[in-house]
């Protein structure tokens, strides 16, 4: 909100619940990549960790039965999942969000490898406002430690690596969501 990105969050109620605007979700997952990882490496044989010379934006159709396939802007307009104007706005917002978060995470000594965003329309009578929806968390971003490249995101689960819980709490701790004391307690409990 502070950088002018309209989003669905109205207020946080507690650690588990939020009050949000009811959006008509655009059925697309927008992935912005700064470094090659995940499906990009598999689909095109690009080496994991390759720094991309500019952020790469990809659109995936939200359809679990089809395994969320990669789609082009032509597909999106042809099948009416979003208009040309909406695609333009989504592209520009996604790049701004990525730019902001790259710097934000860097200040926490974390590399933002890629992230997935979702947008939706909030209807106010006949008018609709495009808003960022869903969530941004280690479930839908790739976050690597700046110094060691240790994965601090859901890839720990996907790749059967240990310490998923600790990695998520490490991110929460660096972001100031949990205190040093709470974080240390977690480490002790895990040992
Ligand atoms: P990918 O490399 O598997 O295509 O994932 C790119 C990014 O999108 C990564 O940060 C994980 C996120 N993502 C989701 O949030 N939900 C999904 O269903 C998928 C496939 C990826």
Number of strands: 10
> How are the strands of the biggest sheet laid out side by side?
6-5-4-7-10
**Helix count?**
6
Which structural class fits the helix and strand makeup? alpha+beta
Question: What is the residue-mean pLDDT, rounded to a whole number?
Answer: 95
Beta percentage is 25-35%
Radius of gyration: 18 Å
Q: Which runs of at least 5 residues are low in confidence (pLDDT < 50)?
A: none
Helix proportion:
25-40%
- Separation of the first and last Cα atoms: 39 Å
Overall form = globular
The string of secondary-structure elements, in order, is: EEEEHEEHHEEEEHHH
Main beta sheet: 5 strands, antiparallel
Bound small molecules, by name, code or SMILES, are: thymidine-5'-phosphate
Which characteristics define this entry?
single chain, 191 residues, alpha+beta, 5-stranded antiparallel sheet, 3-stranded antiparallel sheet, 6 helices, globular, binds thymidine-5'-phosphate
